[in-house]
Amino acid sequence: MPLEILDIAARPDLKPAWRTLFDSYSTFYKRQLTDPVAEAVWTWLMDPGHEVEGRLALVAGRPIGLAHFRRQPRPAFGEDMGYLDDLFVAPDARSGGVGRALIEHVREVGRARGWRTIRWTTADDNYRARTLYDQLAVKTSWNLYDLTVGDAP
């Protein structure tokens, strides 16, 4: 079956399937996706003026993977780049090239927009995904920090 990658905004009827994939992604990273957070992200994905975009990978009309990404300014270079926030493939669809296809799709979006770089982070112990990432990209030496600025709403 051929793999299709589509803009989530073009198919709002796929919201339940997107939510199932996003729930599974959150569970993988040991977070619970709440309804308010899911609704906020869905609203972003449906808003053509919002930075966050999404893609779904489908086989025979069934969503099996998702990618959320956005433009990110890169001041040190005076240019924009892409940031791949979330990438997830349903467990029963892994090892079939879906993750690679989603990343390559985001690369093509970036190329069309003049981005020279697409960046993402993953958990250090996400060995299966890192095997793919190591084939497609260069692991940087940067450390990631989170600074808490207040309580979540």
Give a nutshell description of this structure.
The chain is an alpha+beta fold and 153 residues long. Helices cover 34% and strands 25% of the residues.
Verbal overview:
- The protein has 153 residues and is α+β, with helices and mostly antiparallel strands.
- The chain has a single domain, classed as Gcn5-related N-acetyltransferase (GNAT) (Aminopeptidase, 3-Layer(aba) Sandwich), CATH 3.40.630.
- The protein is built from four helices and five strands; from the N terminus they run βααβββαβα.
- It has helices at residues 15-28, 35-46, 98-113, 127-136, and strands spanning 3-7, 53-59, 62-74, 79-89, 118-119.
- A five-stranded mixed sheet has the order 1-2-3-4-5, with helices on both faces.
- It starts with a strand and ends in a 17-residue tail after the last helix.
- The mean pLDDT is 94.
